[in-house]
Amino acid sequence: MLTGGSYLLAMTTYLGAGTLALLLLAWWLRRWPLLASWLCCSGAALLLLPAYPEPGMETLAPALVVAAFQFGTDGAEAAMHALRPLGVALLAAQVPWLAIGAWLRRRRGAAVSA
Predict the structure, then answer these.
(1) Is the separation of the CB atoms in 73 and 80 below 8 Å?
(2) What is the distance between the alpha carbons of residues 38 and 40, in angstroms, rounded to a whole number?
(3) Which CA distances in Å does 36 have to 20, 22, 32, 64, 101?
(4) Rounded mean pLDDT of the chain?
(5) Over the stretch 75-89, which tens digit does the pLDDT of each residue have?
(6) Strand pairing partners for 62?
(7) Helix (H) or strand (E) segment spanning residue 23
(8) Phi and psi dihedrals of 102, rounded to 5?
């Protein structure tokens, strides 16, 4: 049986693991900062976004997991309630990536000209 404490522990563990995975990815790709920033921003949108498993439920689950299970069991139409926010979050994640990319290009250009 799912209790409030176990639910909170499970979501905290999932979010912590996702954050740790993104930090390790950024560290692993530190030689390619533009690629690392794009993958981390996109990964954060895909890994850390919650969604309701089904309409009317009170608990949240990772949206990527919800979309995968709904798509696998009931088809694409059933997964749309999780896929739409994932798409919006993925598009919204490109804004900080573009800002980080512009900052890195400006910084690299200033280092070359100095």
Answers:
(1) no
(2) 6
(3) 14, 9, 6, 21, 10
(4) 87
(5) 889 889 889 999 999
(6) 50
(7) helix 4-28
(8) -65, -40
In order of 35, 99, 106, 108, 109, the CA distances from 112 in angstroms are 20, 20, 10, 6, 5
How far, in Å, are 39, 56, 74 from residue 45 at the CA level?
Answer: 10, 24, 24
Task: Write out the two tokens for 52.
Answer: 């309701």
**How many residues appear in the chain?**
114
Tokens linked to 54: 């089904």
When pLDDT is averaged across residues 31-42 and rounded to a whole number, the result is 87
> Which residue's entry shows tokens 């997964």?
79
Give 91-113 pLDDT, tens digit per residue. Answer: 999 998 888 878 887 887 777 66
